[in-house]
Fold:
Amino acid sequence: MKYTVPKGTRDFLPAQMLQRNYIFQTISTVYQLHGFVPIETPAMENLSTLMGKYGEEGDRLLFKILNSGNFLEKASHFDDPKKLTTEICERGLRYDLTVPFARFVVQHQNELTFPFKRYQIQPVWRGDRPQKGRYREFYQCDGDVIGSNSLLNELEFLQIINEVFEKLGIRVVVKLNNRKILAAIAALIGQEDKLIDITVAIDKMDKIGIDQVKEELLGKGLKEEVIQKLTPVLLLDGSNAEKLLKLQDLFVEIPIGQKGVEEMQTLLAFANDLAFSSTIDFDITLARGLNYYTGTIFEVKSADTSIGSLCGGGRYDDLTGIFGLPNLSGVGISFGADRIYDTLEELNLFPQNLQQSSKILFCNFGEKEEKQCILWAEKLRKEGIKTEIYPENAKLKKQIGYADAKRIPFVALVGEQELAEQKVSLKNLATGEQISLKIEELVNFLKN
Amino acid sequence: MKYTVPKGTRDFLPAQMLQRNYIFQTISTVYQLHGFVPIETPAMENLSTLMGKYGEEGDRLLFKILNSGNFLEKASHFDDPKKLTTEICERGLRYDLTVPFARFVVQHQNELTFPFKRYQIQPVWRGDRPQKGRYREFYQCDGDVIGSNSLLNELEFLQIINEVFEKLGIRVVVKLNNRKILAAIAALIGQEDKLIDITVAIDKMDKIGIDQVKEELLGKGLKEEVIQKLTPVLLLDGSNAEKLLKLQDLFVEIPIGQKGVEEMQTLLAFANDLAFSSTIDFDITLARGLNYYTGTIFEVKSADTSIGSLCGGGRYDDLTGIFGLPNLSGVGISFGADRIYDTLEELNLFPQNLQQSSKILFCNFGEKEEKQCILWAEKLRKEGIKTEIYPENAKLKKQIGYADAKRIPFVALVGEQELAEQKVSLKNLATGEQISLKIEELVNFLKN
Structure:
């Protein structure tokens, strides 16, 4: 019998942990620099909190937890898996960090300071079919500001995105759009219900050209004269500012469109002042979770790989309304740790020194010597130097092999002679160089 | 309808998160100083990995996850909850960190360097009835060394325990015993099966005296002459060394007892050299998970509160045998984050400066001013100073209230005059003191 992790889940070994912690640490540090504070919510939520929040597919992919005790006593619908499930399961695993956060804000509204800026780095679980790059357990790194309508919040997320990827060394393109602009496009042609078809088609302009896009829209049931009205949107090009000016003209009689263009102009003007290293691209085809967002939307992709979205988010007007606290506007983003990991790996951008565990290993030459090494090792640790003693008097080759495998750069050899001289023979495993040091000299050597 | 977390689980608010991270950080730092490397395992394991590892009660308290899809099709035992459960659930939530670690070691044995020293800080889930201090989701902070029989490993855990609680400022008593000594006591009187009754009774010596203890043992079915043989064990007192010498005499014909005494003597001699600040107490009544440990066992309690065990562990000889990899000896401990939290809270030992989020808040006086503040705030962040801008031009009182609530010590006031002079009016919210600084001066002021 083979014992392994469940399909779609992963163990993280030490080397991966160090790399993943580097990502989480970078993201946390940037959030903290901007005054975000951390929260955590439990892995399990009541199903009443989760169900119906992620569409029909989400309800299906939620991991549900069996009630304990005599769960069968309450059950009756053995003919219907859906009804039976609600009878025998009251809790489910977190599916994202957004819905639990909304529940959190409502539950703790009197303990929080608004605008509330929180970040949250925790795993989520989805019963998706596992495949390359898609897991059943994966981490999200969310930041949200709730309780403020100001565009300064959108700007702050642009800053955070820019700083995180700058620190990680990943060149990115940040795509921006605004839900109000998308609503205005639909209003422009009187086709509010065809918005997704339209954005999908616009997105293909570059590749297939205007005639084929129009054909596709005809196929989706749009009338010839309606598509005609869409032509200026299809032909939209130029710089961010130029595109926005053209839209301003088109939306002259559509207030929501004017508002959307104005928001985008303000945000881009702010961004311009800050001279980001990331490319900021106003992209009318960016749609992301239409039923959810109400203002600015973000999506971040690597400029140098074909790995999908590394980060995304947007403005929502009423996240907590579903839990009985209406009219609380917010904006948030989510970094995808796994895709960022894959990008750093593909571009070979992980810092090399992450791999190091201890700085030095004291080799073990027997009882008398180890007694001395215990005391010296303790001296090094008191100075913050990561230090190990090999726990057994094994063959030296084996002990050195242990240091090599753990990428420990130095070994201390303390045999009878060193004991008599009260010195350590320090060997650099990379160069083979060996020097003799007093313990105080060793401390200074390793601290620098 | 009230939306809350499930019974026995908790949200962690920012202030608690900072306190909890302080605990996790302290423990990780000490583990790392000793060359331990981090791993993580998935929240869910196959039930075949978990079931039968925690006794009957554990099997019952394991949270089981409902299979997705047509789970009913495979089911037939609707009359028997136990059998039905195995038909409709293939996975369960992690119940502790030890069994998943054993599975991890077996699964990845060819990727690991032995002796393998890992630490792991993750939540576990148990369907216990929730009560004060007992939760259904809680964190464990485990460290284990696997693949070495050396007592240096036990010593290292004593060092780790001592350093963690020294850093946290908690005075502790570390109780030590050895499973071999307990086995020898049972062998001494030929009552291997009554071991638990015996240790429970011995534990009461201080409170109820030898006569009552003997009465209790009679009640448990021990014969008069057997109890007589136990008298020297019951009367065991003195220093750690004295107690061990007496046991050495008692166990003269019991090899396992001699081995146990010798191990304890070696360990205590090591510990003596290191002059720990913690009290080390060889305690013959310490029993902990008898079926599991085979050598030294540890338990740590606060010297100044009545809160239970803060940390515990021991030596096991064959943890991975259940997963098909026999004869791999190990030793490990587990810190209980919640009890450590409660201890720090009760003794008022959390550092005061943990509460601080940002160092400075730029108040918002309107569009023109905020444009300048955005640039100045960015300068501070580049220097690593946690900085916020209030996102809206709200009443100053409200903005200052926000800083107060978030314990931000300084606010920057940038109005028309400051803009003209290119200076910041910096207000210390604790003292009310206000000074005028250029941005470079502000950077220096806040960096120190």
